[in-house]
Each structure stands twice: as C-alpha cells, then as structure tokens.
Amino acid sequence: MTLDPMHLLLGIAAFAAFVLLALLIVVIVNLSRRSDERGERAAQSSHLDAELAELKGRLQTVAEISVSRQSELTRSINQRLDSVTHRLGHNLNENAQKTSESLSKLNERLAVIDTAQKNITELSSNIVGLQDILANKQQRGAFGQGRMEAIIEDGLPRGAYTFQPTLSNKMRPDCLIHLPNAPDLVIDAKFPLEGFEAVREARNESEKKEAGTRVRQDVGVHITAIAERYLIAGETQDTALMFVPSESLYADMHERFPDIIQKAARARIVIVSPNMLMLAVQTMQAIMKDVKMREQAGLIQKEVTYLMDDVHRLRDRVLKLQQHFGQANKDIELVLTSSEKITSRGRKIETLDFDEEAKAQEQAQPKMPASARKKGKVAAKANGNGKQPDLIAGE
Predict the structure, then answer these.
(1) What is the tens place of the pLDDT at every residue in 173-200?
(2) Burial of 161 by CB count in 10 Å (0-12 exposed, 13-18 middle, 19+ buried)?
(3) DSSP secondary structure string for all residues of 323-387
(4) What's the pLDDT tens digit per position in 361-395?
(5) pTM score, two decimals?
(6) For the domain with range 142-302, which CATH number is right: 3.40.50, 3.30.70, 3.40.1350, 2.40.128?
(7) What SS3 state is found at 188?
C-alpha cells in the first residue's frame, strides 16, 4: 500500500501540532505551578516576615529583660561583695585581736615556762648537789643525821632527847631519847648506801648478785656494830632504831632483802624510815605525856577538890542572890500597889468624885450592933457635938 505524501505531511503536521499543543499545555501548567509556587513563596515570605518581626520583638524583650536582670544581678553582686568585704574586714579585725591576745598569753606562758625552766635548772643543780652529798659517806651521814634531828625536834619537847651523847662505854650514838622511868632509846642514822647504789646501777644478773651480796655484808656489819656498841644493859633499851633516810630505800629493803630485816629483828634492831620514825616519836610523845599526867595526878586531884569547893560556894551565893531578887520583887510589887492607889486617889481628887467613894466606904463598913450605936451616941454627947466619931475601915 502506498502512502500519500500529503496525508503523511498532514499527519506529521497534525502530530507536530499535537506535540506543540502538548508542549504548550505543559508550559502553561508549569507557569501556573510557578505562579502558585511564587504565591506560596510570597505567602511564606510574608509569614516569615511576620515571624521575624515577632521574633525580633521577643528578642528585644529578652534583651531588655536580660539587661534589667543583669543590672539587678550586678547590684546584688555588689551588695554581696560589700557585705562579704565588711564581714571579712570584721573577721580579720577579730582574728587580729584574738591573735594578739593569744600572742600575749603565749608570751606570759613562755615567761612562766622560762621561770619553770630556771626552777628546774636550780632543782637539777640541787639534785646534783644531793647526789654529791649521797656519794660522799661523811656528807651522807650528815644528811641522815640532819633529817633525823629535824623529825626528833619537831615531835619531842626539849630535854626529852640528846644528840651525839657519850655512853658509859665511850661510844657516841647519833641520838638518845630519854624515856620516863625507863632506860634511854638509841637511834643510829649512819646507814650504808653504797651497796644499794650498786644494785640500782647493775645491768646484768651477775652485777645484781654481786651488789646484793655487798648490801647484805655492809648492812649486816652495821647491824652488828649497833648491837655491840649501843645496847648496854641498864643504861639503854634492849632495842635500838636504825634510821634509813629514804622511803624508797626502806621499801627496797623490805622487797628485795627480807633476810636483812629478819637479821636486824634477831639483833633487836628496828629499821625505820622517816615516816616510821615520826610514828615512833608520836608514840613516845604520848607515853611521856601520860607519865607526866600520872605524876601530876595528886596535884590535879587537889585542884579538882578546890574547884568543887569553889563551885559549891558559887551555888550558895547564887541561891542567896536569888532570895534577894525574890524579896526585891515582892517589895517592888507592894510599891506598885501603893502607886496605883495613890494614882486612883489623885484622879478622884482631880475629878471631885467623893460621893462614890463615901458610898463605897459605907458599903465596905460592917453594920454595928445596937449596943455599939448607943455607945457612939453617948460618946457624941460627951464630946459636945451631936456627931458620931468617924469609923474608917482599915485597908
């Protein structure tokens, strides 16, 4: 089949027209879409402008609020800084004052510490001197003698003791106490301390054992010497006192060396510390006082008899004085009665009140019998007047 070119051209032209129409429709649609999009964009743009304006207003409000809050925050911070600065200055002043007071107290305490340090230095020097005294046997004996003499002088009256006396065997004890109606009591104050110092300075068992042996030997020799020198029958007591000038040393002896205490007891030697010697002195003082009381018992009884006689005389005189006071009271009562009567009469005279008194006297007078009335009339006629004599009742 052959195609007609005319028809073909028409078909092509129709197709081209259709294509052009389709393109035109497409273009129109696109333009309408673009116009719609532009309207939408314009609407969106206006909406965005409104939102931007609102956002701008909000931002301006927020800026104003932030500025006001920042100013308030700045003012609050300044106020707080001022209060903190004031408090800090006040606290600094208080701390400075307290620090100055603490420093002044510290200076006072340092002064006290300096004084205490000086006292400690002096005490240490005194202790060193005491150690020197205790190291020297003669000075140690003088120290023990002085302490023993101080205890004896404080506890006993003068004449009841003698220091460094001479016995019949030419021996001289440290002290002799004169007991009433009994031989004298001997006190020895020379105590050996070298062995005890060695015991304290011992570092091992062998040294301690050696020092203990020395202590037992020295003290045993001293106990024997006291018993042989100072125990004289009929002149001194059969018991003597050995004075130890230290309480700690006395305790060490009882704790570490009981055999020495037993040996001294067998030798009739009593080891005493300062406290024990003080107790013994007080006991002897009580004994002396009791003996003196017994010696003066007769005189005391006589004085008591005189005192009782004086008491009886005082009682008799008090009784007599009581009687005088009783009589004086009675006299005073009579005087008061008379004064009351005088006062009442003076009051009646002052008020001229005599009728009542006369009536009272008539009522107080007893009635007279007829014979007495007749005698009264006769007596009245004899007197020459017709009046009866006054009859006054006795008071």
Answers:
(1) 989 999 888 899 999 988 787 777 777 7
(2) buried
(3) HHHHHHHHHHHHHHHHHHHHHHHHHHHHHT--HHHHHHHHHHSPPPPHHHHHHHHHHHHHHTSS-
(4) 556 555 555 554 544 544 444 444 444 444 333 33
(5) 0.43
(6) 3.40.1350
(7) strand
